[in-house]
Amino acid sequence: MLSASPSFQSTRWTLIEQLRASDCEEERVRILQKLCEACWFPLYSYARRAGHPSEDAEDLTQGFFQHALGNDLFGRASEERGRLRALLLRSFQNHLRNHREREGAAKRGAGTVVSIDAMGAEARYQSEPPDLASPEALYHRRWARDFFASVHERLREECEGEGKGEVFERLSPWIFTSGGAGEQAAAAEVLGVSLDHLRVMLTRYRKRYRMLFRQAVEETLDAPTEDEIAREIRELIELGAG
What we know:
By secondary structure, the protein is mainly alpha-helical. Helices cover 67% and strands 0% of the residues.
């Protein structure tokens, strides 16, 4: 059962390449599980907004990754250069178009190699804005927001590994916003530092977040140029703000 928290750390083109190259079923299952952990909810949201009931969306999303085990689902794009976000959406759209031909071949819970948190998925989906009528718009918005959250989690893990978990928790609300001087002064008092020192630490965390974000974006692009990285960053910011 997957957690609802996103995990884009492993969402990279190297996983797609490893999946295509591996002949070991155990290794392919491990790779598929990583991809599923990172990408299942945007795909589930797409299926739900496309009109599929929650149970069908669960089956379709789970089946998408299971189907990849026995089929060259990503192999046809092996020579493409592009974004993992776009590749997964195209592949999932093809999967939805063809799913009726495979109906009954993989019922829920039968031979499952990857799983999703169905109850958590539907609760998250119901919190999405209803004005995003297009399945594509919702998919891209959810991908972007999960992406931001995953980088935030990566920074949290770094801080905890350095023994600075409490500092991160206190500064976390202001990584994306300026915050009020009174709130920051109160946090500085709790941490036992001056307000100026707190602001220096906050500047460092913001800089580190930007570095991690760029690195994560690069990992979802196939042989990216600087222009491609910059364009994807701009798009993610626009999508996440929508």
